Amino acid sequence: MLIVDRIKKSFLNKEIFKEISFKINKKEKISILGPNSSGKSTLLKILAGLVPWDEGNITLFNQDLLHISLLDKQSLYQKLGIAFQHGGLFDFMNVEENILFALKNMTDLKMFEMKDKIIDFLKRVNLTDVLHKFPGELSGGMRRRVCLIRALITKPQLLLLDDPTAGLDPVNTSLVLETIQKLTEEIQCALLLFTSNVEVAFSASSQVALIKDQGIIGPHTWDELIALQDEWITKFLTGRGYQPQSSVQKRSVSLK
Ligand SMILES: Nc1ncnc2c1ncn2[C@@H]1O[C@H](COP(=O)(O)OP(=O)(O)OP(=O)(O)O)[C@@H](O)[C@H]1O
Ligand SMILES: [Mg+2]
Which tens digits make up the pLDDT trace of 112-125? Predict the structure, then answer.
């Protein structure tokens, strides 16, 4: 579905990616985990066709992104659902109009179907009574959930989510993670979730690719990453005392 092959990227003299490669198959879920400023949003924007890269190849739905026609590019990006880190909602449109904009451009649904769908999807992330509110009237967490719904509602084949839980309280973080889990299963789409939060990364997917030293390690499971016995990786993963449930269970079984 997506092959990133030896991508290099610098901004002026600042190297962001030395050479990164990874791929994601149909219906697969991968979290891209990395510290602040490690290049997560840059990578998402490269994949979304918004930021050029310097070297290497990207193949998306079997199309080489370097040599694709504008027309093919348009239909290709209709298969993607994207939620940017800083939202990207139109300030001059209310919530309903923002989501309708995506649905009108990406689906053939009738107006009443689109409107019913919007209400149904917003309910799933605890948002009621926001249809006619403008982005400026919503809290940061509400805006984030609207963006998630706007990315998911068009039934994309590949969902790119940049820090979907940043700024959310624990209840809404769990709600958003559950919604991502449930809807990606329902839609049967692949997921690339970018985050700096270890717990969010491993809650969203068992396969995690870690950005380190301008490169990418993995995707690997928690146990595989710990088994690398790299001091920085172990500290980054376990520094705040988190351990994924499956790993805790495995340890307690082996201790018996
Ligand atoms: N358009 C740009 N021009 C110049 N430098 C940029 C540009 N976009 C990003 N950068 C730099 O690239 C680096 C990576 O930024 P990026 O936003 O991709 O990091 P991130 O991993 O998403 O961080 P965060 O966890 O804070 O969201 C940063 O040092 C940033 O200042
Ligand atoms: Mg970012």
Answer: 999 999 999 999 88
DSSP 7-28: EEEEETTEEEEEEEEEEE-TT-
**Which protein residues have a CB closer than 5 Å to ligand 2 (ion)?**
40-41, 85
Domain boundaries, the chain: 2-79+156-255
Provide φ and ψ at 29, rounded to 5°: -120, 130
Q: In ligand 1, which atom is closest to the CA atom of 12?
A: 4
Ligand 1 atom nearest to CA at 51: 1
- pTM equals 0.91
pLDDT digits (tens, 9 = 90+) for 98-144: 999 999 988 889 999 999 999 999 998 888 889 999 999 998 888 88
CATH 3.40.50.300 fits 2-79+156-255, yes or no: yes
